[in-house]
Amino acid sequence: MFSILDRATRLCDGISRRELLRVGGLSSIGLSLSQLLRAAPSAITDDVDDPTFGRAKNVIYVWLQGGPPQHETFDPKPGAPQEIRGPFQPIQTNVPGIEFCELLPRTARIADKLAVVRSMHTDNDLHDASGYELLTGYKYRGANSRMISPEDWPYFGSIVKMLKPSETLPALTTAWIPDIMRLNENVTPAGQTGGFLGRQWDPDRFVGDPSDANYHIEGLDSGPTISPLRLQQRVSLLKQVEEHLGGLQRSRLEGIYDQYQGQALDLLTSGRARKAFSLNDEPPEVRDRYGRTKWGQCLLLARRLVEAGVRLVHVNWTREPGDSAVDNPMWDTHAQNADRVEDVLCPMFDVGFTAFIDDLDQRGLLAETLVVAIGEFGRTPRINKIAGRDHWGNVFSFLLAGAGIQAGQVYGSSDKNGAYPARDPVTGADLTATIAHLLGIQPSGTFRDSQGRPHFISTGDPIRQLLGSGTATADRVAPGGDIARLPPYNDALLLNTDFAEPVPLRPTNIGSRPKGWRARPLADEGSAAPLSVKLLGSGTLAAGYKPHVALGYGIDGDGAGVIRIEPGVQAILAQEMRNPRLGRFRFTVKACGHATSADYYESVFLKNFACRLIIFRFNQTAKDPTDRSEFVSTIIKPPFSNAAEPKLQEFSIETLLDSKKPGENFAIGNGYGVAVTLETASGSALELNASSGPHRAWVRIDNVRLEFANRTVNDTVKV
Asked: Are residues 228 and 173 in contact, defined by beta-carbon separation less than 8 angstroms?
């Protein structure tokens, strides 16, 4: 189907226009306005006696794939037991009586622009089947919801494409970014296509990373030359999905593609669409405000697309490199829920979403754009044995904002544990009915399939109590939460890698928070503990003295007296990895050794002690690195160096953490960590008497580095 070329190729030199469109992932761009308007006229009326009918010109559907935990986002339960409420506290938003989790301090400051629904339910705990209901408005009735089928109910964006095409860009009515929806890495769930309507009504997918400096969409390039099509991995997925839908249906679309491909290419290469994708046209400060993450830049791109005239933009929560086949990909936090939402998910959402809403508002777009932010379900009320929350479709929360929504209110509620609806339950059908109503499509209206059979757009009812304009209350209060406590997301796997920040080493047994360096035994100031760890020079010594960590004995003392070190005693410096994924890890330290003399270092210290680098998994949720399972370790022998002029040497260890089979889970469990240890090298006690001279020796660690190369994603579609 595809001709993937390895060199720049002019359109007349061997690539067809149809290939160009299909490689770009565009299913039906180029359909004429008359084609798009072949809808059941009963669905589009102007005589509805409701001022909110048709208030929304556009929709941006923000899909938080994986299922956000209601407790750590928009429905905190401070009165519930610890194993249900979790470690975080609620904060006051800027609307009296509405509280969010403390991990969303920025979102709390724009609550007056949001409506929160706390009583959505699908009663289904499967990503695919529960997601299907929220993407289509209908329960899944097929044989396998983990697989796209031509018999699927159409994605509601496909119905919008058919019934309410864009007046400005009819050929680009419904856009989907930044990738096809996948579970794990190779499972494409039902509900994300035109289904039984046919492929011409699929959303037009634009695959790529808008945060990439070289981001562009193949086919939107300006100039006479098409850049090299090095797209094998991402194209193969779309290709397999199309092949799975069957040759019969594709052949039925040949005429449509042939008739309109020229119009589509002209539109893409010279018009509004190409300009919308030119994110480099945005001022740097605007891009920074959204966050220079794939997620943040996708939201910015969504804003630009509706400005260009796209009717509906679907924004998938973005996958991180190596996040497939682990315990917590995207929002699917089966393990380490608190760590994942604190380190990655909430900071990324909090920055990007608030910038997005404020930007829409400042540009006058929020008044004409409906925004929905929702995942396929929530998470279990009770935290599991590996500190995660599992699938939970019985109740969860989502957000609405923009055109036709009366903001500053909460609709519905969950029970005291956030487990089931307590008031005003909402269904996926109600959500799609609300979207249709605000777009000016009668939810009770019908559309016809390719055989002319009528189907109801929705069987639900619009959420009437949320419809309106302005806010539900004019009262405002000072919002709580500390923005400085939760800075924008960064992808650093380790904190304070040069030890320069004025943060002390903490004991290994203090619990899972805060993150950072842990050590044991910790040397007190002036102490000569038999074997200890000490942070030297951080904010205490003269400028130019490099902060570092020492592991050894006699670090602060004069080495006098008797030093007895029992067998099995270990000094450890360790840190938990932030947001570990699957792939290859390389742990590097810059180290040297110090002692009373070079001879002592060689003949006593290196002879009796072993220094190791370790990559490991924690054995318990308290994350004490002394209780660990080691993936890999190696002994290093840092060279002796004068303390006044340290000559450091790099030492590294690496390992591949990956599942053995495609789609097979590789457990993060209680989290991964790295460590430097110093331990006795023999099975007997070591006694050092001062009569033979002072006993002072240690390993000096100046810098550490943890590099990550993500696993290769398997794009073989499971069918």
From this structure: no
